[in-house]
Amino acid sequence: MSRELEAFIEYLVVVKSLNKKTIDAYQADIKDMEDFLQKNAISFESEEIFAYLTKFEKATTKNRKLSSLNSFYSFCQKQDFDFYKPNIKLSKLPQTLPKYILFDELKEHLKMCDRSSWIGQRDFAFILFLYSCGARVSEALSITKDDIKDGWVKFTNTKRDKQRVVPVAKVAIDEIEKYLSMIEFDSPYIWLNYQGKQLSRISAFKIVKKYLNTSPHTLRHSFATELVLGGADLRVVQEFLGHSSLVTTGIYTHIENKHLQDTIEKYHPLAN
């Protein structure tokens, strides 16, 4: 390693107190860049640093490399290493549509649940609950029996210390009540494991993965997608999801646009 890189790694360890995995990633990125520059006789000061970034096709990889590079340059400037810092912007990542499941597909998968056992009924009710209200998995796991009342559920976002109240489909409420009637554990929490303790995030992921081969967050996206395709106002969807900014909810407009485009291509005589 160069003396600059050694100093940078020491700074990450001592001053920033980053974990080993993060530090190793920084070191690997910058060492790879150093090797490339030396091999091609390019100096750090040269704008030909762009040649290094062109090695990587994926925007996510470029951005990670560039983030490491910019952190390294900023450190060198603060240490008066007199490095030239090129003005390199992050690559624009392509907008990807969130994965979602439509209700007919969900119903087909839920047939796998053995609802004769309380575990199977729990899984059925849990998936239906997530799909019906768009809860974050952390929010869903933390709700108590007192949080559901008259067809509404109260969620508490522990990170932002905020609460919101969302309506829950009657069918989901009914299935939750069936599940609760089958268990003998005395717990304030609704979602429990086989020992009667609060269900963990890992267990929640395993449940959804088992039946749907996806994550709980997909059910949150599915909830929002169904609302948007049904014509719901984005601000209403924002309130349901608990997004602090409408910009975050704006990704679902792309789903609506794609739905409209697919409809035109399928039904309009001039589409093809």
Give a count of the beta strands, DSSP E runs of length 2 or more.
3
Structural class: mainly alpha
N to C succession of SSEs: HHHHHHHEEEHHHHHH
In which range does the helix fraction lie?
55-70%
Instruction: Average the pLDDT over all residues and give the rounded result.
Output: 83
Biggest β-sheet: strands ordered side by side in the sheet: 1-2-3
**Beta strand %:** 5-15%
Which sheet architecture does the biggest sheet show? 3 strands, antiparallel
Radius of gyration: 25 Å
- CATH topology name of the largest domain: hpI Integrase, Chain A
Based on the coordinates given, report the CATH architecture of the largest domain: Orthogonal Bundle
Low-confidence stretches: none
Whole-Å distance between the termini?
59 Å
Q: What is the top-level CATH class of the largest domain?
A: Mainly Alpha
The number of domains is 2
Shape, principal axes of CA atoms: extended
- Total count of helical runs of at least 4 residues: 13
Relevant CATH superfamily of the largest domain: Intergrase catalytic core
